[in-house]
Amino acid sequence: MGTFSRRKAGFERRHWLFAIAVLACVGVWFANVVLDEVRPGSDWAIGYGAAALALLAVAAAYGLRRRAMKVASRRGGSSSAWLAVHVYGGGLFLILVLMHSGFRLPSGWVTWWLWILSWWVVLGGLGGLFLQRWIPRLLTSGLGVEAHYDRIPELVAGVRERADKLAAQCSPAVQEFYLRSVAPELQEPRRRALYYLDVTGGIQARLRDFTHLVQFLSHEEAESLRDLSRLLRTKLELDAHYTLQLPLRWWLYLHLPASLLLVVFVALHLVSVFLY
Amino acid sequence: MRDDKPGQKGSYGRVGLPVATQYVVPKRRRAMALVGALAIVLVLAWLGFDWFMGRGNLLSNGPLSSSHARLETECTSCHSQAERRVTDEQCAVCHEKYGDALGVYSFGAHYVYRSDDFRRLVPSEHEVPCFSCHLEHEGREAAITAVTDRQCFDCHPFASLNVGHPEFDFAADQLPDLGSLAFPHVHHVREVMKEEALEDVERTCLYCHNAQADGRNFDPINFDRHCDACHLAATTATPALPVRQEGGTEPGVDSLETIVARGGPATRWALYTNPNEFRRRGDSVSKVPVHHRDPWVLENLRALRLRLHPDAGLADLLTTTPEVAESGYRQLYREAIVTLEEQALGLRGRPEPEVQSDLTKISDLLAELKRVVEEPFAALDESQFLLALARPNPDLTAEERAQIEALAGELTQPCRQCHTVTQATIERVQADQRVLRRAEFDHRAHILETRCLDCHGAIPIADGARSTEPVDPAVDRAEIQNLPTVDVCRECHNPQQATNACVTCHYFHPNKGRRSDLLLYLE
Description:
The complex is a heterodimer.
Chain A: H1 2-35, H2 43-67, H3 69-73, H4 79-100, H5 109-142, H6 152-168, H7 172-182, H8 194-197, H9 203-214, H10 219-275
Helix pairs in contact in A: 1-4, 2-4, 4-5, 5-10, 6-10, 9-10
Chain B: H1 30-52, H2 88-95, H3 107-112, H4 130-133, H5 150-153, H6 169-172, H7 185-196, H8 201-208, H9 223-227, E1 241-242, H10 256-262, E2 278-281, E3 284-287, H11 295-308, H12 329-347, H13 353-374, H14 383-386, H15 398-411, E4 421-422, E5 425-426, H16 443-447, H17 452-455, H18 461-465, H19 486-490, H20 518-522
Antiparallel strand pairs in B: 1-3, 2-3, 4-5
Helix pairs in contact in B: 11-15, 12-13
């Protein structure tokens, strides 16, 4: 209980700090509008750009921390704190980039890429944050199985093997049913978009065939059929994991290369600004 | 529905999936870093290719405006090789004529602002380079000459025409009109309306105030065009004036014959004057008609003035008094130059040694005056013209001075209907006084919205024109500046109505119109 209270309080403090930072940006922006012309080359805009650069460096430091154990082992704050700085700093970075450009569309090749990459990286990161919050909750809300993504093919093979053995011991009617309706499903893990909308995605509908057939079987055969049903259910839940864990694995491919490219373009932008 | 019971929910559900026998090694995601690195390499390669191919415009912040589009592939046209930054010198390569004393687009030209007063050239700490106001790389359609008012506020600390703008100088300093003519507007408007059968008062204004071709301003009032029809008729005559006697002490005028016989500088006009214009009666002479700027009247007036102030100096080269606004000092020197050149023209070809000596002195003086006029930073003042008039002839008694001034008054009697004569000199009439010199006003743009007397209401012309009552000279005289004050402008130029931006009336580069003169550029 005490731990939950402390976590809740920390979470709210981050929100407040971010809100204050955004309000500060809004206040500074209005001061800029009143006191000076809003354009990318003005002193105000250079200030926004410098602040955005600092935030970008801080956000990028999270990635380094994860990979450099020496840094991680120092007393630099917890991983969750670093993540919070990465997330909120990144959001603030986008706001400062927009303020730096005067909320105008860019006109040059480098600045266009900077603008696009800034949006891409930040929105991609926020998207990944959302996925990391939503998908685990989804997975634990309606499934009875937990499985490591990389093990799912192996586990599906194991389920198929056990189902084959079980079906071989059943009557021809059950075997025929197995071969027609169950075995194709157990061949390999499958992804279905339906799981994003309903994590139990059609599982009950698929198991209804078993319910219909079981009433025509003897007690022993019915028990075997129920075991087959449970194996099929497990496989379908593994499919749900297979489907829903994929974005968790792959969203970083959208975020990380683009963020590396963003850093390079920022460097180019700095070079051109100072050089010219 | 989940098919588990308390205590049975585990990693592998009811079917009891096998625990992994070996640690499942997560797949490496080096591909992410490789994709990013590959993208970076491609970008840098593309940039390098662009750079070494000599274009280097991928780093450009955007396309240039259409007026500079031709330079887009030549970055060094504006970005100097050494400093890379855009410098004013780079802009000046195209936008300044080599040898301009004050660059048309320089801060110096802005400080002086066509006033010819180079004492105003005091550099400000707020000077900024050209590109600070004229932003490039904003695309083809960008209006790089459209500069916002904020750029003005660093030096001019008021927000707009309506907030903090000072009163116009002529109103704030209560400067009188320097016309020096006795000119009641209402009387003249009534006369013109009667003569021309006009009903509209404003149309009467245009009878004398003739707009220039561009409609911005009006031609200066000119006697020959605007006054000659009514003034100095063929019967206008001087009173009978005593003729100066050789060796006499009484003041008098020189007859035409005397002037012709005497010759001398600037008397060539006497050779072409009709002797029938003079009526001689004994020792007196009168002239009829008297012309505007009558050379006989002016020559005799000059002689009388020399008797009052023998050390006339440069003042002797002027036909009127030298009082001008500070911006007009250069004009005095130019008038003196014209007089000297006429004098030199009259003396050339005469072999007499004394004439040649005079010619040499005239040439030296001419050269000096021209040097002063052409030197932009020369200290000009009217004192060289005024000083002589302050030194009266010590050989004259007060009674003699009074006699000479009285004769000067009689000589200029036809002139004094309009002109003022002091110290035997006609006061200068400054027909074209640009009081709002640091602003640009276009009459054509305004006349579509308002009428003349809506703004020029200091003299009650509209009321007086339709009345027959005499008008108090205190409210209708030439010294009144019949110009709108800043409050009159604010009636229309305010945030709700016509624009009140600085650039509506003020150019930062006041002389940029000269850039359109190709001959000037090709000199």
